[in-house]
């Protein structure tokens, strides 16, 4: 499960938007939205491409892409 809030905040931090992120991982904007909102799974290749695009440091990768939800 991706950490939606962290990813959206990072998109703003780097001055980007969801359209540019979608292009970076080669999906439609609507698909990207579903992926970062956990409605569709994100592949490891997509997560790595997005991390590269958003310049997420390797030590922080898990905080963005392996969030667990606790009920």
How would you explain this protein's 3D organization?
The chain contains five helices and no strands. The chain is mostly helical. Helix 2 packs across helix 3. The mean pLDDT is 94.
Give the helix tally. 5
Please compute the radius of gyration using only Cα atoms: 11 Å
Biggest sheet, open or closed, and with what strands and sense? none
Order of helices and strands: HHHHH
Task: Please mark out the parts with pLDDT under 50 across 5 or more consecutive residues, or reply none.
Answer: none
Task: Chart the SSEs and their pairings.
Blueprint: H1 4-13, H2 18-24, H3 29-36, H4 44-53, H5 61-65
Quick synopsis:
This protein has 71 residues and is mainly α. It has 5 helices and no strands.
Give the key terms.
71 residues; mainly alpha; 5 helices; globular
